[in-house]
Amino acid sequence: MYSFKELQDIVQKEIDGLEFSTPPEGLFEPMKYILGIGGKRLRPILVLLSANLFKEDLKKIYLPAIGIEVFHNFTLLHDDVMDNAPIRRSKATVHEKWNSNVAILSGDAMSIKAYQYIVSCEDRHLRDVLTVFNQTALEVCEGQQFDMEFEDRGDVQIDEYLEMIRLKTAVLLGGSLKMGAVMGDADAKDADLLYHFGVNLGMAFQLQDDYLDVFGDEEVFGKKIGGDILCNKKTFLLIKAFELAKGDDKKELEEWISAKDFNAEEKITAVRSIYEKLKVKDQSQAKIDEYFSLCLEYLDKVNVPAEKKKELYTLVKKLVNRSV
Amino acid sequence: MYSFKELQDIVQKEIDGLEFSTPPEGLFEPMKYILGIGGKRLRPILVLLSANLFKEDLKKIYLPAIGIEVFHNFTLLHDDVMDNAPIRRSKATVHEKWNSNVAILSGDAMSIKAYQYIVSCEDRHLRDVLTVFNQTALEVCEGQQFDMEFEDRGDVQIDEYLEMIRLKTAVLLGGSLKMGAVMGDADAKDADLLYHFGVNLGMAFQLQDDYLDVFGDEEVFGKKIGGDILCNKKTFLLIKAFELAKGDDKKELEEWISAKDFNAEEKITAVRSIYEKLKVKDQSQAKIDEYFSLCLEYLDKVNVPAEKKKELYTLVKKLVNRSV
Fold first, then answer.
1. Chain B contact set for A108 (CB, 8 A)
2. CA closest to A149 among chain B residues
3. Per residue in A22-49, is it b (16+ CB within 10 Å) or e — as a string?
4. What is the pLDDT along chain B (324 residues), one digit of tens a residue?
């Protein structure tokens, strides 16, 4: 059994060893750059942890696992263009460092590279791996589309928001775990359980991320608190607040949302207080707990000795900031 | 044996029957739109004509063939964003009709759809089809990257130009034919011959397209003549002209290239005259003939009765405007 840390090192070594040296450099340099600026490498590690439940030797799965990370980074690259985001993980985004055309085209090439790595799996897994991956990849695009559409809508409902984060974030965690299970020769039932484990983990993780953006500790969270509030991002918290707010609370919330001129700290503090007053904070925690419990239920049911699942339980706990 | 026309109808019917009705509409409408504005459907027809050399029943190959057309249209969609092109086949481009973000994201989703269709091939062909497709798709991106880089360079050489059009245009024709051969259960040798047939056909076709943009008949060519000259596009003709021009010819050419204020018709006529004077026109024709002969040599060698290849010979003749 591999630990999370061991797999993280393996994944990093594999990424560092990828060959992007063919011309044209202008196409491959941005790939190297975005893959080089780090991240937790969560998705390929999930592929490998999942496969490791069923088999010991993971070498043939390294490259397909890296393919998922390459795909994930491709989506970040294009999302940053679409969101016009200047910074990713404290570094200039690709379209800032180069330009939009470079970001579009090297992203396209990156998605094909992702496929090349993913189809390096063994022949007997190829069909199943592709079926999961294609569906997941398409859903990620659907999620991004909903996310963009929500920016221009004032009537987004909680269920729509949950469906959006399921597509944009959660299914790729589920898909990674399922592809790992397939490549580990798990049976279909366990592969599906791991998929649902991952999707629910992804939901809990994203809701927790939204929560920490408002109520987190900057030191621990690793990025500035309040960003979602400042840009009126329609997260669970804001949608729920609008659902519950009445009278003066509603008026105050609406004023902050439509304010053009404001002090950032003041807005963050004010909106956070409204969230607390309306118990949106508690409801968010309750929702996270709900997905967290569900995800554990699925993991419990996976038909391997509990001891093999230890690393996954630890990971879940860390990701969702809960004790198992 | 199917005729080109029959296959064109089949391809069109299949494209019309594609289901793009799942939400979000904003993601799938642009796909329907760009697939709907037509084109010759050359690539899927090449897949099917190639397979048809080796087998009669093509039904299982329809969808993978459509996948190649979807991929091709995805590249057009993103190229149009990168080139900031307002019009494609007399219609507004996707980023004009919607916006850049829509074009980027629906293009991304389209490339995944392309994979979904392509991998619908039979299991025994899956690995080979994917190997050809992945390599080809990546090369198409490399070609686009070179094309964009050439815009900012004054020293592009003929060989570099030929390599760029090989990657950007020719390999996808070769790849289509090879994938068709694989799905038709051709042996590896015939599949490779068809690949090289297609690549050389693609070279001849692109050079002919460049030629017609300068010397063609607007009625027959179907688009305005002289566009490449007006935007100083570094085609075979212009690069060759700079290679050969001396003294006053060189000075005149340079003046037209750097001119900011000019009468369009005057520039077209002047540059065309220089091309004729420098015999660039003849050299272009000679180069087209060279690729045309090579492509026929490869097709000749494909190990099926000559009569089965009739449709392909007719197609080549039509595409390159030569008699076989």
1. 75, 78, 107-108, 111, 141
2. B26
3. eebebbbbbbbbbbebeeebbbbbbbbb
4. 999 999 999 999 999 999 887 889 889 999 999 999 988 999 999 999 999 999 999 999 999 999 999 999 999 999 999 999 999 988 999 999 999 999 999 999 999 999 999 999 999 999 999 999 999 999 999 999 999 999 989 899 999 999 999 999 999 999 999 999 999 999 999 999 999 999 999 999 999 999 999 999 887 777 788 999 999 999 999 999 999 999 999 999 999 999 999 999 999 999 999 999 999 999 999 999 999 999 999 999 999 999 999 999 999 999 988 765
- Give me the residue from A27, A115, A126 closest to B142, CB to CB: A27
Q: Rounded to an integer, what distance in angstroms lies between the CA atom of residue A116 and that of residue A190?
A: 26
* Domains of chain A with CATH codes: 1-186 (1.10.600.10), 187-313 (1.10.600.10)
The Cα–Cα gap between B243 and B237 comes to 10
Rg of chain A taking only CA atoms, in angstroms: 20
- Separation between Cα atoms, residue A47 and residue A10, nearest integer Å: 13
Most A CBs within 10 Å: which of B63, B102, B104, B131, as the mutation test of the A interface?
B104
Q: Find tokens 């937790």 and name the residue.
A: A40
Helix axes B264-277, B247-258, angle to 10 degrees: 150
